[in-house]
């Protein structure tokens, strides 16, 4: 179902269901995505646009969509996956007509449409510090900042491989690089796929990958959160897109938990204990100072 199946005609039914569920259950709503080259309504790609026409289309869509959920979205992924695999701009309908200007316009209009939302650039393959796509994401952030356009964060999708995942040090370096430019960074679509058949070694690698993400996010203060790209294997997109891969999420088909789930809990408990110990130490120091005084 498309949000704008025909020009200027919007269908918010499914989005409203999610927004209402978040409100009812007291959950933070992260909204995705305003401008993306994929899963477009056919009329967007089938029309031969002039620059002014396409600008009007993008503006109407952003104000229509972000305006509809104004004040409800904590974060908006404003532009999603603008980079190709080599770190250059993806040759989408938006880029082919407008060049990189479409990115600037999208962020400018998103800020006007929903001023309270935090605005993100979101992409995959930008988790490693030496990646050409990471360099591309940094280039986009700097371009927006140099133009005086609001950007609040970078979303690292985190579609990772169990047998070839970034180290925790990689994650920390990349998170820190983004944090030097924007106030926030987040893992926005985390899953860790396994090449089937699954075995204990692969599950251990997967557990380690999830733990590296969680620990790196906790260690970098500007990392504001981790969003799983669903939680239960039957809902995963992985088997449909990557043949011979699967088991990417913390819960199995039968609702049993993978080692990755336990690994995440271990990290959370570890840092909760560290925080508790620091607080106890601080209280002890305060009491000692009062006694000496």
Automatic annotation (TrEMBL):
Pathway noted in the entry: Glycan degradation; xylan degradation
Highest taxon above the source species: Eukaryota
Reaction it catalyzes: Endohydrolysis of (1->4)-beta-D-xylosidic linkages in xylans
UniProtKB keywords: Carbohydrate metabolism, Glycosidase, Hydrolase, Polysaccharide degradation, Secreted, Xylan degradation
Enzyme class: hydrolase
Annotated GO MF terms: endo-1,4-beta-xylanase activity
GO cellular component, one term: extracellular region
Nucleotide-binding recorded as keyword: no
InterPro entries: GH (IPR017853), GH10 (IPR044846), GH10_dom (IPR001000)
SMART domains in UniProt: Glyco_10
Localization: Secreted
Ranges for domain GH10: 1-267
One GO BP annotation of this record: xylan catabolic process
Protein's UniProt keywords contain Secreted: yes
Family: Belongs to the glycosyl hydrolase 10 (cellulase F) family.
Protein name per Swiss-Prot or TrEMBL: Beta-xylanase
Native source organism of the sequence: Podospora aff. communis PSN243
């Amino acid at each position: 179902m498309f949000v704008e199946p025909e020009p200027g005609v919007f269908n918010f039914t499914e989005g409203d269901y999610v927004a209402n569920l978040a409100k009812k259950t007291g959950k933070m709503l992260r909204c995705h995505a305003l401008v993306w080259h994929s899963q477009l309504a056919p009329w967007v790609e089938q029309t031969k646009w002039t620059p002014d026409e396409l600008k009007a289309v993008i503006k109407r869509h952003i104000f229509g969509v972000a305006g509809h959920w104004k004040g409800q979205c904590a974060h908006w992924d404003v532009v999603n996956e603008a980079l190709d695999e080599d770190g250059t701009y993806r040759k989408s309908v938006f880029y082919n007509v407008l060049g990189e200007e479409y990115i600037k316009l999208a962020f400018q209009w998103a800020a006007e449409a929903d001023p309270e939302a935090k605005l993100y650039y979101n992409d995959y393959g930008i988790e490693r510090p030496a990646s050409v796509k990471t360099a591309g994401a940094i280039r986009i952030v700097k371009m927006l900042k140099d133009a005086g356009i609001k950007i609040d964060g970078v979303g690292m999708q985190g579609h990772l491989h169990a047998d070839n995942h970034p180290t925790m040090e990689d994650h920390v370096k990349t998170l820190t690089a983004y944090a030097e430019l924007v106030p926030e960074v987040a893992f926005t679509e985390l899953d860790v796929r396994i090449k089937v058949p699954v075995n204990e070694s692969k599950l251990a690698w997967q557990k380690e990958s999830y733990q590296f993400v969680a620990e790196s996010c906790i260690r970098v203060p500007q990392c504001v959160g981790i969003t799983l790209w669903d939680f239960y294997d039957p809902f995963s997109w992985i088997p449909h897109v990557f043949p011979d891969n699967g088991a990417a999420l913390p819960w199995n088909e039968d609702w049993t938990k993978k080692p990755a789930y336990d690994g995440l809990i271990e990290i959370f408990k570890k840092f909760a204990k560290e925080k508790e110990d620091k607080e106890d130490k601080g209280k002890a120091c305060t009491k000692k100072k009062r006694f000496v005084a």
